[in-house]
Amino acid sequence: MFELLGIPPQALFGQVLLGLINGSFYAVLSLGLAVIFGLLNIINFAHGALYMMGAFVSWMLLTYLGIPFWFALVISPLVVGALGMVIERTMLRPLHELDHLYSLLLTFGLTLVITGVFQNFYGVSGKPYPIPAALTGVMNLGFMFLPIYRGFIIVMAVIVCFATWFLIEKTRLGSYLRAATENPEMVSAFGINVPLLVTLTYGFGVALSAFAGVLAAPVYSVNPVMGNDLIIVVFAVIVIGGMGSIMGAIIGGFSLGLVEGLTKVFYPEASTTIIFIIMALVLLFKPSGIFGREV
Amino acid sequence: MTHTIEKSQADTPGPETQAMLEVQGLNGWYGESHVLHDVNLTVNKGEVVTLLGRNGAGKTTTLKAIMGLLKSRSGSIRFNGTELIDLPARDIARLGIGYVPDDRGIFGSLSVLENLLLPPKVADGGFDLPAIYELFPNLEERLDSYGNKLSGGEQQMLSIARILRTGALFVLMDEPTEGLAPVIIHQIGHTVRRLKKAGFTILLVEQNFHFARELADRHYIVQEGKVVDQFRNDEIADNLEKIQGYLGI
Ligand SMILES: Nc1ncnc2c1ncn2[C@@H]1O[C@H](COP(=O)(O)OP(=O)(O)OP(=O)(O)O)[C@@H](O)[C@H]1O
Ligand SMILES: [Mg+2]
């Protein structure tokens, strides 16, 4: 067997795989943040809590109603997305005219409330969620064994990212969104309902985070604080990719997950900080982010 | 408080004229600053009417108030009989009013084609794409370019062109000639005439008086947020000095 810098290939591929799985979550979560930031110009601090809710709703559907994973994959994003739309209508909209700091504080407060409520009812210990039967087992790729569910996560993340990119960049609805991001007043002067567009966009971004939560349930333990650490990394990812950049979120998410995985192999001490080091470098040399537009 | 439009001989409605837009006692504010003071004006169906006035007179603000883009406004704006003063911009647009703003409002991150297709149809009978390309051949060659890569003239044409698709027959145009080369100004003049022939009604803000007098049926003079005078186009020659005084030219 060949070895790379003294690293056995199994360990290398294993970390690459883990990196890609983390990257899948980074990509889907930062994509939602980017979509929301683009149009609403707010940093949705509640994203991690909504991701956690996505996982919890999935767990509740299974535990209380016996509704399996495949349906949860659709139902949970719809439920949490609808909650997002209510949050936008009732709480974020009144802050729209004020400094964006207020929306940031609001979503931060919401995070604490949502997390607190779930902790109150479910404690902090994780709830197990089984891998759906059809996706159990491993696949022999020749050079490594791939747990099928982990491959599934990556495939689903790629599909959702591509579909979102397509929706935004290639469809009529997406052109409304991009136009409203640039000049909402002009878009409304064409007869388009911009406030509705804003609500739908927020709901969509939130639904993406819930979708990530459903995917996460079988691999990470479902618990009220599962979004907390993740969301900090995801914020770093969108700063690196470029605030509001769709491509930046997708490519940044996957590649930073990969970088993190490789760092674990070659220099494990830095694996939890590497993304923040990259963030600092990007802020120094290209503050608008790698894919961000200069303003 | 009631407001009556000063009716000079200029716009006494004959039996064939039909007011499309009637603005009465329009007041407008930017925050605390009171910018429009009891503006009165009428645009009849099929007319090209201009708002003339010096910098800062309130012409753009008047168009924004009509379009529903000025948040704070009062008075009456009736369009085909519908009161607009409390409607949001999107509902006003849906009644068939197209807006060509002074900054042209092109979306830089959208392609020319996306810009063209962006405004939803608000009525039947808008131009189809071939008709638009016939009117603006340069746009057809640049469909895939991004809005921010266009020249000022191309942006202006795109700004007008995308309205034509919607079926709106009443257009607010804010200084379409500003900063453009004479050949392009000429082309825009030609376009406005074509539109008038096609049955469009146009309220045009202009600083370029020579451009305005070649196209318009009537002119309103705006000064310090008020309409202070008005002329039929055929009265221009007799009132040239007065008008030049108003405009400071
Ligand atoms: N966004 C704004 N906030 C505050 N005041 C404004 C704003 N826009 C315009 N004004 C003020 O309102 C008044 C009317 O401005 P407006 O833009 O309507 O003039 P205009 O006739 O279109 O001038 P121009 O020929 O230069 O375009 C001016 O005194 C201007 O300074
Ligand atoms: Mg102006």
From TrEMBL, chain A:
Species of provenance: Roseovarius pacificus
Protein name in the entry: Amino acid/amide ABC transporter membrane protein 1, HAAT family
GO biological process terms held by the UniProt record: amino acid transport
GO terms of molecular function: transmembrane transporter activity
First-listed, main subcellular location of the protein, grouped into a coarse class: membrane
Membrane-spanning intervals of the chain: 12-35, 42-61, 67-88, 100-122, 148-168, 189-218, 230-259, 266-285
Keyword field contains Iron: no
Family: Belongs to the binding-protein-dependent transport system permease family. LivHM subfamily.
Compartment(s) where it occurs, according to its Swiss-Prot or TrEMBL record: Cell membrane
InterPro entries in UniProt: ABC_transp_permease, BCAA_transport_permease
Key word Transmembrane helix present: yes
Gene Ontology cellular component annotations, sorted alphabetically: plasma membrane
Keywords recorded for this protein, A-Z: Amino-acid transport, Cell membrane, Membrane, Transmembrane, Transmembrane helix, Transport
Membrane topology of this protein: Multi-pass membrane protein
UniProtKB/TrEMBL annotation, chain B:
Domain ABC transporter span(s) in chain numbering: 21-249
A Pfam entry, by short name: ABC_tran
CDD domains, sorted: ABC_TM1139_LivF_branched (cd03224)
PANTHER family: HIGH-AFFINITY BRANCHED-CHAIN AMINO ACID TRANSPORT ATP-BINDING PROTEIN LIVF
Identification of the protein by name: Amino acid/amide ABC transporter ATP-binding protein 2, HAAT family
GO function terms (MF aspect): ATP binding; ATP hydrolysis activity; branched-chain amino acid transmembrane transporter activity
BP GO terms, sorted: L-amino acid transport
Protein's organism: Roseovarius pacificus
